[in-house]
Task: inverse folding
């Protein structure tokens, strides 16, 4: 079922936001059996693994990222048996499963926190970050929550403050307590014993906070959170050993994988944890922030590559459940030309590509009025920041009611363009974005240079054109991506001109060849071109 190559290096990983993928029991919320019913689609697309956002019991203040039991399945999504069925059917198709572990905090409904609030003598009290008030009942220090407001919330029963980096309903665990670390290892063991293949560690770099709870120095910024230098609330020295213990355990299960989501998108502080005895990989999230600009992409790539240690393997993310979709950010036209270039970028770079459900059909962000917003941070900051619901709309499977996602009203509205933009329609259209993704993934599987070849940029028109080679000893593939809407020419100089190149693929379906005239190849506006050395 599984090929021998290292799946998380050579493969393509697909993120599923389970509430929005497919609803099998018609309650308007996606579930595990819904995912299972679309495994053939995922196998056809060519993904090697799925990362499923949290499916554990949760009061859903932060839609699953507030867990009340790490070793169970929320009935909204199904049962443990449903999970086992999904896992075995995915494995049968050669698809690995990555669980999303949220271990920096729990839900305030977690039994540990409930116990913790019973009083200072309770054995679970020290599972969380508690601190006495400063004189005048003031919070223990100046820390801020990234979701807005102070980091601290007062609890009148304990007459102490507890810390929460996210919502107050997500109290932070005290990783300095060895009992917490032991419980967390049990969580890994529980899922590894069930045969899961890997874990995405939510905000791993914020597991530890400064034990002395020192104030953070001020800096210039817009929001109070940004007006601090975050030196005490993440990336603490104790993190390295904790990651080592996790890795040691995970390594007992061959071919298992851990990828970390950094708390702050700071390249250096996340890269340093990608080590043979710590994380296999960490997300590079800059691509989710920067505009559609070839030189910005290249410099972001370079800073990521140079921050990583030489043998560390990169991974690339254009979309996830926290940011507006690239289809909106990059202002793609309705024919998705630009999204095809973005797809080629993701699938030909050196590193593991992470795709987000719906990215392959160019799913757009939905528009919501204030009364439709569900994400608390969107409600709090409307209209300045509208939250993250927009990128979490139901998957558009076909043109039937509610886009084939469910027969009941979904928890978030379906994008109104679903009658035209959906999986079924795009599977039947050879020039669709979906078929381009399928083609690129197929090519990537076929050509080792695209999996593990070195990456050599050869850019001449820095803002408009990103061109690079992917090369192994025996194979050379040249990728040219036109970031502008106008035609552009790629100049081939030196050694490149001596080679014979033939067309491997183009995002423009009518292209038949790639003629080199006077050392130049012309690219149409918004074209992605792959050439292979003709040996
Ligand atoms: C990062 C997750 O991606 C985000 O959705 C969540 O709100 C926070 N971590 C808190 O768990």
Result:
């Amino acid at each position: 079922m599984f090929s021998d190559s290292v799946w998380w290096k050579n493969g393509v990983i697909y993120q599923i936001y389970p509430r929005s993928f497919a609803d099998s029991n018609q309650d308007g919320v996606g579930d595990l059996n819904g995912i299972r019913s679309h495994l053939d689609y995922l196998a056809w697309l060519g993904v090697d693994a799925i990362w499923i956002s949290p499916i554990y019991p949760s009061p859903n203040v932060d839609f699953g990222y507030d867990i009340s039991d790490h070793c169970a399945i929320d009935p909204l999504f199904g049962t443990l048996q449903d999970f086992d069925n999904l896992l075995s059917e995915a494995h049968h198709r050669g698809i690995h499963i990555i669980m999303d572990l949220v271990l920096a905090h729990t839900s305030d409904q977690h039994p540990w926190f409930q116990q913790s609030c019973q009083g200072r003598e309770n054995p679970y009290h020290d599972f969380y970050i508690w601190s006495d008030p400063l004189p005048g009942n003031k919070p223990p220090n100046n820390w801020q929550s990234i979701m807005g407001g102070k980091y601290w919330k007062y609890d009148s029963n304990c007459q102490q403050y507890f810390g929460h980096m996210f919502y107050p309903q997500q109290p932070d665990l005290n990783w300095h307590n060895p009992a917490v670390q032991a419980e967390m290892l049990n969580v890994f063991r529980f899922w590894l014993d069930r045969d899961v293949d890997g874990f995405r560690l939510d905000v791993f770099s914020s597991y530890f906070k400064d034990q002395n709870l020192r104030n953070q120095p001020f800096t210039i910024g817009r929001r109070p959170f940004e007006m601090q230098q975050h030196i005490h609330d993440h990336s603490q020295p104790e993190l390295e050993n904790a990651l080592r213990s996790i890795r040691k355990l995970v390594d007992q299960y061959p071919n298992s994988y851990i990828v970390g989501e950094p708390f702050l998108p700071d390249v250096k502080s996340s890269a340093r944890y990608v080590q043979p005895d710590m994380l296999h990989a960490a997300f590079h999230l800059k691509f989710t922030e920067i505009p559609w600009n070839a030189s910005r992409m290249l410099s972001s790539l370079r800073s990521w590559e140079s921050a990583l240690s030489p043998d560390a393997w990169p991974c690339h993310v254009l979309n996830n459940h926290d940011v507006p979709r690239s289809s909106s950010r990059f202002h793609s036209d309705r024919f998705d030309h630009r999204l095809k270039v973005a797809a080629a970028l993701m699938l030909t770079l050196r590193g593991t590509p992470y795709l987000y459900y719906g990215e392959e059909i160019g799913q757009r962000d939905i528009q919501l009025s204030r009364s439709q917003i569900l994400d608390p941070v969107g409600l709090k900051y409307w209209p300045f920041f509208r939250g993250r619901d927009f990128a979490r709309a139901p998957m558009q499977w076909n043109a039937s009611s509610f886009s084939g996602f469910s027969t009941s009203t979904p928890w978030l509205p379906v994008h109104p363009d679903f009658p035209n933009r959906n999986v079924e329609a795009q599977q039947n259209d050879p020039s669709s974005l979906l078929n381009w993704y399928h083609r690129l993934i197929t090519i990537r599987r076929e050509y080792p240079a695209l999996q593990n070849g070195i990456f050599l940029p050869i850019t001449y028109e820095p803002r408009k054109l990103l061109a690079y080679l992917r090369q192994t000893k025996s194979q050379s593939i040249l990728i040219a991506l036109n970031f502008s809407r106008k035609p552009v020419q790629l100049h081939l100089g030196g050694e490149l001109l001596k080679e014979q190149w033939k067309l491997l693929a183009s995002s423009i379906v009518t292209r038949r060849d790639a003629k080199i005239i006077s050392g130049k190849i012309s690219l149409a506006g918004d074209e992605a071109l792959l050439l292979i050395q003709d040996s």
Q: What stands out?
A: The chain has three domains: 7-107+175-442, 111-163, 454-533. Residues 454-533 form a domain with the Immunoglobulin-like fold (CATH 2.60.40.1180).
